[in-house]
Amino acid sequence: MSVPKQRDARKLLQTINEYPWYVEKFIEHKKTKKNSPSTLLGYLRDIAFFFRWMMAEGLTSATEMKQLPLSDLNELKKETVESYILYLQESHLYERSVLLTNPTRSSRKEYSDRTINRKVSSLKSLFHYLSALAEDEHGESYLTRNVLAKIELEMTEMTPLARAHAIRAKILIDEEIYQFVDFVHTGFLAHCDTLKKQQYHLKNRDRDTALVAMILSGGFRVSEVVSLNLSDLVMEKNQIKLVRKGKKEDAPFFSDWGKDYLAKYLQARDSYNPPAYEDAVFLAVSPGKPEGHRIDVRSVQKLVKKYAKAFGIPDLSVHKLRHSFATQFLRLNPDPHQLQAQLGHSKIETTMQYAHVLEDALSKAVNRTT
């Protein structure tokens, strides 16, 4: 199990006792379906948000989530659930943060349709389990009625070309890939308006550049890069050993270009003063942890966002770096099966979404036709 998954598994064990017994049963059921710890934590966050809303709205006499009885779920009306969906759509106008465990600045932003659908989908999954799959000692369902079955999700179907158009402005293509990496290493210094920011950037720029370059040169997931150990590197073959989703062992490649940035960072890795037992490739330090320790996923997501905003592509995320690699790969190597192997996709359909991103190829094909 990767390091982020181990951390999420521990967090799952630490937090599950805050929920009612029937939610624990639901999570145990999902575990049998081989859902990852991060997916299960996502279910818990969405369920917790709904339960806190119920308590805030006086829809239950419970004062803690763990005390919320099944009967209160059984008595929910369709109109009440629709009110919750309206709240999700407008919650940025209110004090949404009071329903969150760790509110951030994003709690003041409007939820996207996708986020709302995910939150409702989590509830639909819980209610379906309680009403149709689970049974008590008498063989009866936990819930006698499933009010969420009456709620339809607003799913907007997108064609591959429409999806491609939406993605295109959020990824890097051709020279933008190299320009962005150069910006991380050199250009961002001009955006550091204090001496403290300059010193912080100079200390971490080799690490940050190597992180970004590795994802762009191999299409790795952020969790895969964060979990990378020194013992996983096969530098002479430009390969890394990792465990993919579904616990599949793999050994994908990275380019010579990415290798150069990685090698430069490895020479500076000891500057983070890691203990002898620390095997993580990418390190971080903090006031509470002055010794070099494994950087976490959230930190990588934040640093990519920081650089992307300064670079002028604020919608570029760490996952979009993976998209950027995949799109560029198919642009230069029109073999989706090779890309499927490199990205670790189990289905070719998942890989083929990248074949549509560059509509200029389709435009040229149309022109050649007539």
TrEMBL record:
Residues 167-367 form the Tyr recombinase domain. Coiled coil: none annotated. The keyword DNA damage does not apply. Gene3D superfamilies: 1.10.150.130, Intergrase catalytic core (1.10.443.10). PROSITE patterns: CB (PS51900), TYR_RECOMBINASE (PS51898). One of its GO terms (molecular function) is DNA binding. Residues 17-131 form the Core-binding (CB) domain. Keywords: Cell cycle, Cell division, Chromosome partition, Cytoplasm, DNA integration, DNA recombination, DNA-binding. It is found in: Cytoplasm. InterPro entries: CB, DNA_brk_join_enz, Integrase-like_cat_sf, Integrase_catalytic, Integrase_recombinase_N, Tyrosine_recombinase_XerCD. GO terms for cellular component: cytoplasm. GO terms for biological process: cell division; chromosome segregation; DNA integration; DNA recombination. NCBIfam families: PRK05084.1. This is Recombinase XerS. It comes from Brevibacillus panacihumi W25. The lineage of its organism: Bacteria, Bacillati, Bacillota, Bacilli, Bacillales.
